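Researcher: I'd like a structural prediction for the single chain below. Treat it as a standalone chain; there are no partners to consider.
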Amino acid sequence: MVLRSLMAVTFVSALAIPAVAAPVGFGLGDSITFGETDLQYIPSFGDRGYVGRYADIVDSRNGDEARPLVVNTAIDGETAESFFDGTGRTPPVVGRTDIPLASQNLNYETDPTTPQAVKFQSLLSEQRAAGNEAAFVTLTLGFNELAALTILPEDEALAQIDPTLAAYRANYIDVVSLVRASAPEADLYLLNYFNPFPADPTENTADAVFGIAGPRLNDIIREVAENFGATYVDVASAFAGREAELTFIDEFPAGSTVPTPHPFGPGTAPIGNVHPNADGYQVIADQIAAAEEVPEPAMLGLMAFGLLGISLVRYRNIS
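Model: Treating it as a single chain, here is the predicted structure.
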């Protein structure tokens, strides 16, 4: 009788043991996080780029622990402003607008007008409801702000760098503030941008814009990473001198006609195909893995709560 009672207690206790939470890695941002490659615009859940490769690296380090689930909400052409609004993305090919760009990510298949900020919070809530926890978040935003300038004559584009970067900085702080407040437990990786244009054989405005503004953009990302206790990932230095090897820019330089399976037909890529190839995405994943951690829990708490006010207006807009 005693034995049966002990067995019953043991059985009930076993049933009461909660399931082990699965770690989740979130990818946020633009086409670099989404994993765009040859501009064929094949819909996916964003599993072609660096985020899944980084999850593989984490898995190899964790031994018997579960590989992180990957939830990628990134959208081609996303900017730090359209992240909240869902409009005004910078299409890489003429004729692509906000809804087709969002629809390429199958997470938005049924709701392509939903801003990425809303989708991120929704999917984060779904994972938590399933008993999972945010292990890491990666973010790339900023390239498209500068890309939008490249359609202007060079002198006009260069004159717009200062106001463009000022607006970007404010919007980027809002994005990072929201991410920190939404998932304060997650390791946050803010990636800087490589400049692909040294390998472009054509002469174009993009080369001048990114040559001047690219380092300044990366300085903003570094500053925000330091202020929010995030890990700054230096992708630019890993690509320097290897642009032709790690991207499509020499294969599809500025002005290239890009075929596409979508109804709007082929179009011209004004600044060429700047996206990494498979080797490039692996380099990005390796850079994240190699990035030095910045474990400052006290500062994380202060940033999560003290800087939450920065994004209150944003919260009202997306709620």
